[in-house]
Amino acid sequence: MGRVVHFEVHVDDMERAKKFYGKVFGWTFEDWSEYAGVPYFGATTGDANAMGINGALMKRMGPPPQPGQPVSGFACTMGVEDYDATEAKILSLGGQVALPKYALPGMAWQGYYIDTEGNVIGIHQPDENAK
């Protein structure tokens, strides 16, 4: 099986993206640009002993996604403890709603947003009472 072991978020403004992901999700970053040969910051997304993967923010090498166009890559979804508080952070830091909060009945709350770089991201709060 081909298990996902790393992700890359392509960004136009590295500092803006680091601020967004750091403040919304608590990610921390390490400069790996020397190894990658382009602006590239490794992202630690949580406790190494918890479920999930780490990734990176990478300087975008072409035009950004255009509003209203279909997603042409992977949309990563982050697990959160408080959907509404996370949404408030996303919006306060310049993100936008792409698909509002909806229930996955008996399982979770889910929604999608556009980050400060034009990428689609999801958030997911487990909740057995979602309906």
UniProtKB/TrEMBL annotation:
Signal peptide: none annotated. InterPro entries: Anthracycline_SecMetBiosynth, Glyas_Bleomycin-R_OHBP_Dase, Glyoxy/Ble-like_N, VOC_core. Coiled coil: none annotated. It holds the Pfam family Ble-like_N. Residues 3-126 form the VOC domain. It comes from the Bacteria. PROSITE patterns: VOC (PS51819). This is Glyoxalase. It comes from Paenibacillus glycanilyticus. The lineage of its organism: Bacteria, Bacillati, Bacillota, Bacilli, Bacillales.
